[in-house]
Amino acid sequence: MQLAWLLLEGIGIGIAVAAPVGPVGLLCIQRTLQDGATVGLATGIGAATADGLFGLVAAFGLASIADYLVAHSTSLKIVGGVVLLVLAWRAWQRTRPRIEPDVPVHVRVLGGYSTGLAITLSNPMTIMGFVGIFAALGLEDLAAGTGNVTALVIGVLAGSAMWWLGLCGGTILLKPRIGPQSLSWTNRLAAVLLAVFGVVALVSGAM
């Protein structure tokens, strides 16, 4: 019963962590519109994987890993900012609502997953968010056993994945109403917002 409850709490935590609007959410929407639900969902699953890893570190109380990531947060933010600026430039260049034939779909899926994973991992302060949530819910003691940690982390992964699946599904429902011209402007808007996130990350890292 305790494991089932921890699983449900993990799902709630995963949704809560994934839900705030950020660069991965923008990429998920933009790629779903441009390349299809598979590529968009892969981007979200990459972020869900990172959330699961952060949740694992927080649940096991691996202070050394958390401290290392936080200590190197400046470098990670700068790398993440550069990646976001590159993605912003690529999104700005994409104005045609089709997948280029010279790039296989599986390559786009892998690219979506890796960028979602990398962008989320570049924000190690997420670990501290997990620690705070676990402490607020009194889960730091419950997650002492391996089985408890497994249930909690699986819940976090499932909850995060559920959020990204819902976001892609909602985007797919709106896609028929978006014409080529609107898709072009959507790409440009996503590019501008990604660039803003990238600049913020670079400034935050530099400071």
From TrEMBL:
UniProt xrefs under InterPro entries: LeuE-type
Localization terms from the record: Cell membrane
Keywords assigned by UniProt, alphabetized: Cell membrane, Membrane, Transmembrane, Transmembrane helix
GO CC, any one term: plasma membrane
One Pfam short name: LysE
Molecular-function GO term, any one: amino acid transmembrane transporter activity
Main location: membrane
Protein name as catalogued: Threonine/homoserine/homoserine lactone efflux protein
